[in-house]
Structure formats: structure tokens, C-alpha cells
Amino acid sequence: MKTVSNLILASALLLSGATLFAEHPSDTAQVKEENKIVRKANETILKSMIALDNIMGDPENSIPPSMIAQSEGIVILPGTIKMAVGIAGGQGGIGIAMIRLEDGSWSNPFFVSLGEGSIGIQLGIQKSEVILLFKNKDDIMGLDGTDVTLGSDIGVAAGPVSKGSSTTSDLRFESEIYSYCRSNGLFAGVSLKGGVLTYNHRINDSLYCMNDVSTEVILYEMDAPVSYEANDLIIALNMYGE
After folding, report:
1. DSSP 208
2. In terms of DSSP H, where are the helices of the chain?
């Protein structure tokens, strides 16, 4: 009798679960999609730390520690792709942005996208790791409200490098943004002027489990770090800025 009761109970539970799934299949699909985006987000944060390591690991062209220490914000684009065929070309990528908080620590990351169009006789493909150091963190914080065009809305220049020397402590910010790039491909370099930085609502909403989450909330109301990957990136920034 007990066995029959258990079978009836098990069947009821299975039917109940099947009914719930039938009523809300889109909810399950949405959760899976959100989890996928969060995994990709943390992978991008990890790749951003690797990009930082790669640029800082170049003995001739690494970022001077004093420049990192002075910066109020940073954008890391670990996989910027530039393509061109014939006369049309462009570049784009997804990366992270962070600011320095009042106590000197680095904030949680939020996600940004880089887009650009260009015209010229070009042919090739290039993948670049790009780091942008910002003189003023306000230029990053406003990205959730307006796009920023590099070289137009805000000045961007190639940053000074260490050149294997430690005598760079007297360097000062003379541009609103300094850029550092490490490139592989057929192009000799990557031009950031004309590139448009935008706030990536989809990834930020998924990572922080909120609808229309703002930079203000991410930077000042969320406990940092948001993940193990973000913690490792913060540790690396602190180390390279010493």
C-alpha cells in the first residue's frame, strides 16, 4: 500500500512540474539566457585582466605605474576587432569601465561597447587589446546617459610608456584620455579617434540583476567586488599602480 502511495505522490509531483514548465517555458529560457550573459560578462572581466597583464608585460611599452595611480577611471577593451574590405571599414568591441572611488579603491566594473565607422582604401583584419586611462571619472560615469565620441566629445592621445625605465614618476596627464594598445593583425595600429563608447544596458542589467541599472548604482550602491574575476582585476590594478 505504501509503495502505491509513493508512486501516486511521485506521479503527482512530476505532473505538477510538467504543468509549471508548460505554463512558464519562456521564464526558464529567459533564466538560461540571463545566466549565459552573466558567464560571458565574467569571462570578459577575466580577459580584461589578461589584456592588462599583456600590456604591462611589454618591457618597452608598458603603462607607467604613475599614470595608473593618477587616473580616475579606466576602460579595458580586451578584444577590439578592426575589419576592412575595399573602401568600407570599422571596429568594435565590448569591454569594462571602472572608476576610482573617494577612498582610492577601484569600483565594480560596468560594461561598455566601442563602435566606429571609417572610410578609406583598406584590406585586413586586426584584433587589439585597448586600455584607456581617464583623467576625470565624470567622463565615464555619464556613459549611461549619453554616448562619448573619442577625439570629438573628449580628447584622446597615445599615452606615455615606460620604455623599460622606472624614471616616469614625474609624468602628468596632459590629455583627457590616454590610450594604450596591443595589436595583432594586418593593420599597423588602431585608431581610436571617432570611436563611440556606449553603455551596454543588456549586460549590466544581467550582471547586476536589475532593470535599467545605472552607473550610480553599480559604482556607489553595490558592494565591490561583484565577482571573483572582478576581485582579481582590482588586485591587478592596485599592483600595477604602485
Report:
1. T
2. 2-23, 25-56, 65-70, 138-141, 201-207, 215-220, 228-240
Angle at 53 between CA 47 and CA 59, to 5 degrees: 150
In this structure, is the dihedral angle defined by the CA atoms of residues 43, 228, 179 and 194, taken in order, positive or negative?
Answer: positive
Mean pLDDT on 154-164: 80
Residues 6+ apart with CB under 8 A from 19: none
Confidence of residue 182 (pLDDT cuts 50, 70, 90): confident
User: 167: which DSSP letter?
Assistant: -
Q: Using alpha carbons only, what angle is made at residue 142 by residues 224 and 222, rounded to the nearest 5 degrees?
A: 20
Please state, in angstroms and rounded to a whole number, the distance separating the CA atoms of residues 111 and 1: 59
pLDDT above 60 for 5:
no
Contacts of 44 (CB under 8 A, 6+ apart): 78, 94, 95, 96, 111
